[in-house]
Specification:
With 338 residues, the chain is of the alpha/beta class. 39% of the residues lie in helices and 17% in strands.
Length: 338
């Protein structure tokens, strides 16, 4: 890949949301990659017209991105789209677009996947099972332990459990799961994020990290033993830390990533710190995947007021990861030419 730009495939997501708008905005910019969207060309042309943007929608042939043009792999909508009004009948289109993008990654036709926001509720209303991109991509690629990582500048927050009800978190929080997630962080950071020995802070589940067992025993029975086991194996990991203090500036200076136990323990922090420019990265997959930090924003679709900051940053992070992996592979080949 040293002689060409990274090839990035984009799925705009829910067609009635701001995903198509963001793709149109990106098409106007200079990008350090070959960008292709899996989408309905008519949808993109229609939304460009609504936004008052001049964009040439062209068939993708692997060429570098050119400002003012958007290359596509065509996928046809199931029913016409009205901005801001999702139709469950287009859920099959959303997942088909994602499937084609994943297939392109697995086949080596592209180097990374960037996903736009989808509407989980609408997809499930259509009768299709979908709990989130992270879980879906893991199933499609055969990954055993996908890990959701959110990044906003130097702040990095990972999750042990993702889209599960809060009442089920304790049951899902096992030593095996926790150890697997920590191992993924330790293994993926060197190649994808160019951090050779990431310093991992592990949060407790309960207030004050369980207060010595008085506010819960998960820290004593699950989290502490898993952390100690991996620390003895050479992983730079510590905890359990109280989640209400580990995110202070003085504490964060000691770590490269904070591992939280559930969705809303970690995401409010990252979104407060960098909403609109944060990026979601899925580790533990055999492909590179990044995503935006926001939802479909149906009320903004077609208005011209959608902020493309997170989508642009997701593309930039995908490009960086591809370059990091290329450098890592080149270094490994130089060390072991056989």
């Amino acid at each position: 890949m040293n002689d060409r730009l990274p090839r990035i495939v984009l799925t705009p997501g829910e067609p009635s949301g701001i995903g198509p708008d963001l793709a149109i905005v990106l098409a106007q910019r200079e990008l350090g990659c070959s960008l292709v969207a899996v989408a309905d060309p008519e949808l993109l042309e229609q939304r460009a017209g609504v936004l008052g943007q001049r964009v040439r929608v062209v068939e993708w042939r692997g060429e570098p991105h050119r400002s003012g043009a958007l290359a596509v792999i065509p996928e046809t909508l199931r029913v016409p789209v009205q901005a801001g009004s999702p139709d469950p009948r287009n859920s099959a289109y959303v997942l088909a677009s994602l499937d084609r993008a994943v297939d392109a990654c697995v086949a080596g036709q592209v180097d990374a996947l960037v996903t736009g926001p989808v509407h989980k509720g609408v997809i499930n209303e259509s009768g299709l099972r979908f709990s989130g991109h992270t879980e879906y991509l893991a199933e499609r690629t055969g990954a055993e332990c996908p890990v959701m990582l959110l990044m906003a500048g130097t702040l990095r927050v990972a999750l042990v459990t993702t889209h599960v009800p809060l009442a089920d978190v304790s049951e899902r929080l096992t030593r095996v799961r926790l150890e697997s997630v920590i191992r993924v962080l330790a293994c993926d950071f060197p190649g994808k994020l160019a951090l050779a020995h990431p310093r991992i802070a592990v949060c407790g589940l309960n207030p004050h990290a369980g207060e010595g067992g008085h506010l819960g025993t998960e820290e004593i029975e699950v989290i502490g033993p898993a952390v100690e086991k991996l620390r003895r194996c050479g992983v730079s990991v510590s905890g359990p830390w109280s989640a209400d203090t580990v995110f202070t500036k003085s504490q964060l200076a000691n770590f490269d990533v904070v591992l939280t136990m559930y969705h809303d323990q970690g995401l409010p922090v990252i979104k407060y710190a960098g909403f609109g420019r944060a990026v979601n990265v899925t580790l533990g997959l055999p492909i590179v995947r990044t995503s935006v930090d926001h939802g479909t924003a149906l009320e903004l679709a077609g208005s011209g007021r959608a902020n493309a900051g997170s989508m642009a940053e997701a593309v930039n992070v995908a490009i960086d990861i591809v370059h990091n992996l290329t450098s890592a592979h080149a270094g490994a080949a130089a060390r072991d030419p056989a």
